[in-house]
Amino acid sequence: MKAKKPKWVIEKEQAKKAAGEQTVWLFGLHAVRDALMNPAREKLRLIVTKNAADKLSEAIAQGGIDPEMADPRKFPAPLDPQSVHQGAALEVKPLDWGPLAELALGGAAGVPRVVMLDRVTDPHNVGAILRSAEVFGACAVVAPRHHSAPETGALAKTASGALERQPYVQVRNLADAIKELQGMGYLVLGLAGEAEQTLEEALDGRRDRPVALVLGAEGPGLRQKTRETCDALVRIEFAGAFGSLNVSNAAAVALYAARP
User: Hey, CA dihedral for 10, 15, 16, 20, is it positive or negative?
Assistant: First the structure.
């Protein structure tokens, strides 16, 4: 008689199967063009209007996928009605960037920098952070699998192509990922408005070390467990007595301030 699988094994297998079946609809000329030209992206279905097909002709040829032509007044892709699709939508599988430990080595890019997000769920914020991470040469943006922004069309559109080039890694447990980076020699700094030392002070004499910057959601900020796991809490220095940045702006400023 075949032994019955434990419930947790069945649930894990179901989650893996669901993840394998998960697809994302990217939309907008920029996001669709960059995904078509990314050889690592598995492309399933492309819907375009005649106008969009003309603008994307090179990318469509490179992407190796036959487009479905659509009437702009009856665009058939299953998108939110508010989505500004510009006549182009591409169904894809989420990207697999591989293990965090490999990405965190940084390659030939110099002293590595990583951005970690603690429950940042707004796709527009995460998209903007991916753009900043790409501009400032971060080797990964890391977020927990739950309570974070998944890979979506809205995120890809805000990222303006960066989603195809900037690793966005979703991990099971953020505190464990922090400890993993610490084990690799990373200095992990959590951003908190009430912190006593500034980011520059914490990095003084230590810019040659790999650094991870941890940012929390606007309002609640970093969770207690995250705070306790970071090496130190730091703040961005403001000119006035009152000041706050949204999380995507804070990420850009922190990445610039923390450059090696």
Answer: positive
pLDDT digits (tens, 9 = 90+) for 55-77: 999 999 999 999 999 998 899 99
pTM, 2 dp: 0.87
Q: Give the number of other CB atoms < 10 A from CB of residue 126.
A: 28
Burial profile 173-192: b = 16 or more Cβ within 10 angstroms, e = fewer: ebbebbebbeeeebbbbbbb
CA angle 38–129–191, rounded 5-degree value:
145
Cα–chain center distance at 56: 25
Write out the H or E segment, with its range, that includes residue 18: helix 7-21
Look at residue 234 and tell me whether its pLDDT is greater than 70: yes
Q: Is residue 127 packed enough to be buried (19+ CB in 10 Å), middle (13-18) or exposed (0-12)?
A: buried
The two tokens of residue 53 are 């097909």
- From residue 86, how far is each of 33, 73, 152, 153 by CA, in Å? 12, 12, 16, 13
Tokens of 165: 């080039």
